[in-house]
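for the recovery benchmark. C-alpha cells below, seq after
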C-alpha cells in the first residue's frame, strides 16, 4: 500500500517536473569540503537514471581523483589541474581556481550542450570543487552561476553535514556561510541536511525555528564564539523564515522525494521572484548606462563651451558648419559631402582675406 502511494507520489512529481520545465533545471551543488556534495550527486544521479529521464551531470571539480557517477561533462577532460599547477607554479587552491577560470572561458560550449538536451533532460546537476570558497568567491564561479541563472531555471543546493553541525558553533558558521551565498546570488536556495542516516536533522530544524532551543544548546559555553553565535542566531531569524531545508542521506537516498518537491517549489520561486527581479535590475542597469552616457555628453559639451568662452573662441568656427563629418579626398565626389581638400582651400582663402584686411 505504502509502495503504491510512493509510486503515485513519484509519478505526480515527475509529471509536474515534465510540464513546467521546458528547459532543464540547473542545480548548483555547493557545500563545505566533505559535506557530501559528490556523494549527493551520485545518489541523485543513480535515482534519476532509474526514472524516465536521466539527468545531465557536470563535474566542475578539477582536483577530484575519480567521479563516482556517469558524468556528461568533466572539467578534468578539458583542464589538467596538475599541469596548471606546474606551469603557473601554483599551490593546490591556486591550481583549482586557475583551472576553473580556464574552464569558464569555454563555458558557452557547456551552455550549448545543456540547451541541446532540453527535450530529454529535466535536470542538469553541477558538482563543485571540495573547497567551497573556490567556487563561491571566485570570478569564474560567479560567471558560471550568473550565466546559468540568466538562461535556465537555476537553484542553489547547499549541502550541510549534520554529523559535524551538532556543535551549535559549527552549525552557526555553516548557516552564516549559507546566508552570505544566498544574499550574494539571490537565487532559490535549498539546504540539504545530509548524512541523516548517521544523525537526524531534527535538532537543526529546531534550532532554526526556536531561538530558545539554540540558546539552550549553547548554555554551557560562555566563550566569545558562543556569545557571537547567540546574537547571530537572532539576526539570522529573517533568513531562517524563508529557508527550505530538507533532510537527506546521500548514502541511503532517504529524503529524495522531499528534495524533488523542494526543487519544484524552487523553480516556481525562480520564475516568480528571481526572473522579474533579474529583468528589473537589467533594465535599471541599461537605463543607468544610457543616463550616464547622456550626462557625460552634456558634461563634455558644457566643458567645451566653457573652455571656448575662456579662450575667447567663437563656437563653430573651427568645426564644420554642416552636421555632416568631412570626408577625405578619395570620398570627395560623393554628393552631399564637402571634401577635405575643398575645406582646406576654403580655410586658406579665409585666412588670406583675414590677413589682407588686417594689413590694409
Ligand atoms: N554516512 C554518510 N556518509 C556520507 C554521506 N554523504 C557523504 N558521506 C561521506 O562523506 C565523505 C565526503 O563525501 P564527499 O561526497 O566526497 O564530499 P564533498 O567533498 O562534499 O564532495 C565520504 O566519505 C562520503 O562517503 C551520507 O549521507 N551519509
Ligand atoms: Mg566532491
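predicted aa per position
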Amino acid at each position: 500500500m505504502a509502495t503504491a502511494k510512493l509510486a503515485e507520489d513519484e509519478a505526480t512529481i515527475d509529471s509536474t517536473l515534465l510540464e513546467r520545465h521546458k528547459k532543464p533545471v540547473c542545480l548548483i551543488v555547493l557545500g563545505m569540503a566533505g559535506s557530501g556534495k559528490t556523494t549527493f550527486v551520485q545518489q541523485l544521479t543513480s535515482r534519476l537514471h532509474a526514472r524516465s529521464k536521466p539527468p545531465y551531470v557536470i563535474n566542475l571539480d578539477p582536483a577530484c581523483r575519480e567521479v563516482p557517477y556517469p558524468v556528461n561533462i568533466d572539467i578534468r577532460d578539458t583542464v589538467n589541474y596538475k599541469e596548471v599547477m606546474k606551469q603557473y607554479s601554483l599551490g593546490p587552491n591556486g591550481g583549482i581556481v586557475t583551472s576553473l577560470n580556464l574552464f569558464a572561458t569555454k563555458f558557452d560550449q557547456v551552455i550549448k550542450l545543456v540547451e541541446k538536451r532540453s527535450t530529454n533532460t529535466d535536470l542538469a546537476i553541477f558538482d563543485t570543487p571540495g573547497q567551497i570558497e573556490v567556487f563561491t568567491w571566485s570570478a569564474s564561479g560567479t560567471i558560471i552561476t550568473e550565466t546559468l541563472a540568466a538562461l535556465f531555471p537555476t537553484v542553489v543546493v547547499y549541502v550541510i553535514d549534520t554529523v559535524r553541525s551538532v556543535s551549535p558553533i559549527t552549525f552557526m558558521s555553516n548557516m552564516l556561510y549559507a546566508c552570505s551565498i544566498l544574499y550574494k546570488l539571490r537565487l532559490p536556495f535549498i539546504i540539504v541536511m545530509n548524512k541523516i542516516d548517521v544523525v537526524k536533522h531534527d535538532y537543526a530544524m529546531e534550532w532554526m525555528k526556536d531561538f530558545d532551543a539554540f540558546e539552550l544548546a549553547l548554555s554551557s559555553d560562555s566563550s566569545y564564539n558562543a556569545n557571537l553565535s547567540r546574537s547571530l542566531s537572532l539576526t539570522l531569524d529573517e533568513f531562517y523564515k524563508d529557508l527550505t531545508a530538507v533532510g537527506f542521506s546521500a548514502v541511503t537516498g532517504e529524503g529524495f522525494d522531499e528534495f524533488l518537491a523542494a526543487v519544484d517549489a524552487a523553480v516556481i520561486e525562480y520564475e516568480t521572484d528571481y526572473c522579474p527581479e533579474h529583468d528589473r535590475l537589467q533594465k535599471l542597469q541599461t537605463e543607468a548606462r544610457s543616463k550616464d552616457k547622456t550626462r557625460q555628453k552634456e558634461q563634455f559639451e558644457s566643458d567645451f563651451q566653457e573652455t571656448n568662452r575662456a579662450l575667447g573662441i567663437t563656437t563653430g568656427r573651427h568645426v564644420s558648419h554642416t552636421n555632416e563629418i568631412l570626408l577625405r579626398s578619395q570620398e570627395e565626389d560623393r554628393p552631399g559631402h564637402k571634401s577635405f581638400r575643398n575645406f582646406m582651400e576654403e580655410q586658406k582663402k579665409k585666412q588670406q582675406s583675414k590677413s589682407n584686411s588686417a594689413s590694409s
